[in-house]
Write a structure and sequence with these properties.
With about 300 residues, the chain is mainly α. It has one domain. Helices cover about 60% and strands about 5% of the residues. The chain has helices at about 5, 15-20, 25-35, 40-50, 55-70, 75-90, 105-125, 135-150, 160-170, 180-190, 205-215, 220-225, 235-250, 255, 260-280, 285-290, and strands spanning about 95, 100. Strands 1-2 form a two-stranded antiparallel sheet. Strand 1 and strand 2 (about 100) form a beta hairpin. Helix 3 packs across helix 11 (about 205-215). The relative contact order is 0.17. GO terms for molecular function: oxidoreductase activity. Pfam families: MPAB_Lcp_cat.
Length: about 300
Amino acid sequence: MASIDEIVVQRPQSATWQVHLDRCMWVGGVRGLMLQALHPLAMRGVWQNSNFQEDPFGRLRRTADFVGRTTFGTPAEAEAIGRRVRDIHRSLRIAHEGRTHRVDDPELLLWVHCAEVSSYLEVVRRGGLALTDRQADQYLHEQRRSAAYVGLHPEDVPGSQAEMADYFKEIRPKLRVIDESAATVRFLLWPRLPKEMRMLSPGKPVYFPFGALCYYTLPSWARGMYRALPEAPQAAVTAGLRAFSLAANALPEPVHDRAFMPSTRRMLTASRDRLGVLGYDVRKGLKGLTDPRRWAAA
């Protein structure tokens, strides 16, 4: 019989499972995109090399697929998606201020990684996930493995909250709002739906509170750079985030998983099946395994 380390990249007991199975990750994902947009070179890279403007949800779902495979997939699945990402990045270039830059520049990869994982951690904790500081540090340490899949050296990646804070202090002088950054935040607050989702256009006003919630969870210094919306009491933002968390985390796993790409849903189903064979109680899905009382002695 296969061992747990052969069937999932991260164990159910990991801090990564605790964070990545919290439904506030959707808020963290959009917040991460808004934060990433403050790096001019990274923003130009997205603007010039993706169809983000036509399919913003596609980028979010592809990110969710990467996160899912490097958490719940097999090591082979994680390496395969990492290799695909590295191959794509290797072939792309960015035109910026009269120079040409590589998309796989380590500085850019590190910025994208840090903006992303720090957003996940901040939002799920603020939304009510009870992680200790030690567990939060462990999460960032575990995410060094994900950083390696995109081509970074794990030892160069912040592996604790203190190291992450030092990184942001160092990088902030390089951040600024360019036209593409401002356009991206406006777009994430009021996205243009892709053709296959245009029938949902009448419901777009319902999306705006979600987009605003993502924006208001940004660090105060980032909101101060954007000034896209009037400031709001942060206590109200926290209350809104906790309400979103309660509602989203109450959804049955099969219903929630419909938000993912079909390939991601198949991967998650296969992960549940493998864990079940190994002795884990998966009757409540992967999310049920974040309860320590449900861990098997596998």
